[in-house]
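Exercise 7.
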Amino acid sequence: MWRHFDVTVADVGMILMICGALCVILGVTRRAYAPRVSLLWGILLLLCGGALWLLPQLDLSSQFLTRLSFLSVGATFLAADLVNYFKRRKCTVPCQGAFLDTAVYGRKGTGLQYGAAVFRYQADGVSYDQASLDKRFWLGFLTSPFSKTFKEGDHCTIYLNPNNPRRFAISRRPRLGLFTICAIFLFVAFFRS
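Solution. The predicted structure, written as tokens, is:
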């Protein structure tokens, strides 16, 4: 694939560093939807991009570069799910919530969908309609996993973050997300190559 575009590993590293710098700027200026996550992703992209930009100049073997790229991309995917897991771990206060709908990010009905369950609940006398921290991927022609588990109006126990009641988790158990599964495959490829 790289032959057709004439893109080197150093070029990909430079692109990742530019994207990382943009994420850091958006995180620092608080223009991003989630500034801390944007800052973390930006730093991670800067590190991966810098490594990809510097490594070809060290005259290392292509097999080592391939293994290192498997490891760095796998670590990036794993970091995305770990950030979400630690956000969910902060949700410790049980509360009753009513399932409303599934919030879908991106275009509905086509390709790979990404979304979260929306619940209505009350905390400290204030009513909230919020999407959960539990995110899922599914194919667009299938029903969402939240619609399979919950019907509209179903009540269940959710767990609120005591410092920020707008954040809640449906479950506090660790769960293998799509990014974690991709990271596992990349780590296996790293050790097998």
